[in-house]
């Protein structure tokens, strides 16, 4: 397993809602809610991110409660990209959900970050590796948003 730079990882997770807001700043909401062909709209990506947060926190809880728990993978079927809420509301909810996630992460100490688990796809993992998985997921979907926005310009 890779060495985790705790400070950098926490900084990314904490700052991500701001990165997301910056990427969307000044963009017309109407454009952000329209899917690009078979692809998700920006609003759908943000909604998916918002719904992921509760699943991530439940996963962290399991790692802390159980000895080396099995962590099934989840995707859009559980963390849906769909909602009736406006994009502004979804962004606010995501920010609030991430604040709850950060409060949970800050409650753990360095020893906790090493607690083992078994991920359905990647195998042996730790609580810290699961935090990194969230950061990677953030980065992947921020890239997706940038790609959508770039496509909209053409």
Q: What is the string of SSEs from the N terminus onward?
A: HHHEHEEH
- The number of strands is 3
Share of residues in helices: 55-70%
Number of helices: 5
The pLDDT mean sits at 93
What summary fits the major beta sheet?
3 strands, mixed
Percent of residues in β-strands: 5-15%
**Distance between termini?**
41 Å
Strands of the biggest beta sheet: in what spatial order? 1-2-3
Structural class: mainly alpha
State Rg.
Answer: 16 Å
| Low-confidence residue ranges | none
Oligomerization state: single chain
Q: Assign an overall shape.
A: elongated
How would you explain this protein's 3D organization?
It is a single chain. The protein is mainly alpha-helical. 61% of the residues lie in helices and 6% in strands. The chain has five helices and three strands; from the N terminus they run αααβαββα. The chain has helices spanning 6-24, 29-32, 42-65, 87-106, 127-153; strands at 70-71, 116-119, 123-126. It has a three-stranded mixed beta sheet. α1 packs antiparallel against α4 (87-106). 24% of the residues are buried. The model has no long low-confidence stretch (mean pLDDT 93).
Secondary structure layout:
Blueprint: H1 6-24, H2 29-32, H3 42-65, E1 70-71, H4 87-106, E2 116-119, E3 123-126, H5 127-153
Parallel strand pairs: 1-2
Antiparallel strand pairs: 2-3
Helix pairs in contact: 1-4, 1-5, 3-4, 3-5
Brief summary:
About 60% of the residues lie in helices and about 5% in strands.
């Amino acid at each position: 397993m890779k060495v985790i730079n705790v400070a950098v990882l926490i900084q990314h997770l904490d700052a991500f809602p701001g990165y997301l807001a910056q990427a969307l700043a000044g963009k017309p909401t109407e454009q952000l809610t329209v899917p690009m062909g078979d692809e998700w709209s920006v609003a759908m990506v943000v909604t998916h991110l918002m719904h992921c947060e509760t699943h991530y926190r439940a996963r962290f809880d399991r790692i802390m409660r159980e000895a080396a728990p099995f962590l099934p993978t989840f995707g859009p079927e559980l963390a849906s990209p769909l909602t009736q809420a406006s994009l502004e509301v979804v962004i606010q909810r995501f920010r609030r959900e991430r604040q709850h996630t950060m409060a949970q992460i800050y409650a753990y100490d360095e020893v906790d970050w090493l607690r083992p688990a078994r991920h359905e796809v990647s195998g042996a993992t730790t609580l810290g590796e699961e935090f990194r998985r969230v950061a990677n997921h953030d980065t992947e979907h921020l890239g997706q948003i940038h790609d959508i926005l770039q496509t909209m310009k053409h």
